[in-house]
Design goal:
By secondary structure, the chain is α/β, with parallel strands linked by helices. It has 2 domains: 2-168, HUPs (Rossmann fold, 3-Layer(aba) Sandwich); 181-269, Pantoate--beta-alanine Ligase, Chain: A,domain 2 (2-Layer Sandwich), CATH 3.30.1300. It contains 10 helices and 9 strands. The strands form 2 sheets. It has a 6-stranded parallel sheet with strand order 1-4-3-2-5-6, sandwiched between helices. The protein is globular and about 55 Å long. The structure holds adenosine monophosphate (AMP). Adenosine monophosphate (AMP) binds at residues 25-26, 32-33, 35-36, 142-143, 145-146, 168, 170-171, 178-181.
């Protein structure tokens, strides 16, 4: 595996005319990331993974500071997977050529995480924009775990870059909790509570699939989750999975949650 820190060297050494798959991450790799990497390895000739904890997407500085970092362990995992290239730039490397035009979200997109984490998706889109302007992979891989992010990136990239976006399903633990780098900040007791939240929401989804009028129980579910110790829901919303509007039916809805578990912010969708 070749490790790059500069975009110039990356462009010199990697033949982007070939079928290159790109998996952007913030590191502390787990089986969710690994499934994206394996999908890229199957679809593409070479796979490039990036590990970059993007400061501009953290709207709270202490959240950025406490974000888990495990570069040595990550490199071991990537070597074992036979990943071809790793890109680990500094923030300076990414933002030194920053153009003055700021990325803005449309008013109708300022919902859920965009509402509760102002500036977050603008930061995500800014880093994806920097990446794709400066090197040109043919394929890029994202997880459905970050579903709102996935839809915003699809929209952003559509007429701007010639690249195929691949959406990969959420990987979960045995007891249904979505894998996340942030889970490293949780205790075993916290993890139990998050697994319980996941099972409640899977159940809620199943009941709504049978009978959409069951949606009226959303408030009861919120109350039930909020009574758990050290758990606080930020939002629990049911939306149309194609366009995230509130106009949904039995076939096209998705349930979205963001909540704090022992001060760690977690998101998931069902
Ligand atoms: P992150 O390192 O959290 O920024 O995530 C990098 C990529 O991995 C994003 O496209 C995420 O959606 C994806 N990802 C994170 N967790 C999971 C998971 N449990 N299952 C599938 N994809 C995931």
């Amino acid at each position: 595996m070749i490790i790059f820190k500069s975009i110039n060297t990356l462009n010199k050494e990697v033949n982007f005319k070939a079928n290159i798959g790109f998996v952007p991450t913030m590191g502390s790799l787990h089986k969710g990331h690994i499934s994206l990497i394996k999908t890229s390895k199957k679809a593409c000739k070479k796979t490039l993974v990036s590990i970059f904890i993007n400061p501009s997407q953290f709207n709270k500085h202490h959240d950025y500071k406490k974000y888990p970092k495990n570069l040595k362990k990550d490199i071991k995992i990537l070597k074992k997977l036979k990943v071809d290239y790793l890109f680990t730039p500094s923030a300076r490397e990414i933002y030194k050529n920053k153009k003055s035009s700021k990325i803005k979200l449309k008013k109708k997109d300022k919902i859920m995480c965009a509402l509760y984490r102002p500036g977050h998706f603008e930061g995500v889109l800014a880093v994806i924009n920097q990446f794709l302007q400066r090197f040109k992979p043919k394929h890029i891989f994202f997880g459905e775990k970050d579903y709102q992010q996935l839809l915003l990136i699809k929209k952003f990239v559509k007429n701007k870059f010639k690249i195929t976006i691949h959406a990969c399903p959420t990987v979960r633990s045995k007891d249904k909790m979505a894998l996340s780098s942030r889970n490293e900040l949780l205790t075993n007791a916290d993890i139990k509570k998050s697994s319980y939240v996941a099972s409640l929401l899977f159940n809620f989804k199943r009941k709504m699939k049978n009978d959409i009028s069951f949606k009226k129980n959303r408030i009861n579910i919120i109350d039930k989750i909020n009574t758990l110790k050290k758990i606080k829901i930020e939002y629990l919303e049911i939306r149309n999975k194609i366009n995230l509007s509130k106009n949904y039916n039995q076939k096209n809805f998705k349930i979205f949650i963001a909540y704090y578990n022992n001060k760690v912010r977690l998101i998931d969708n069902y």
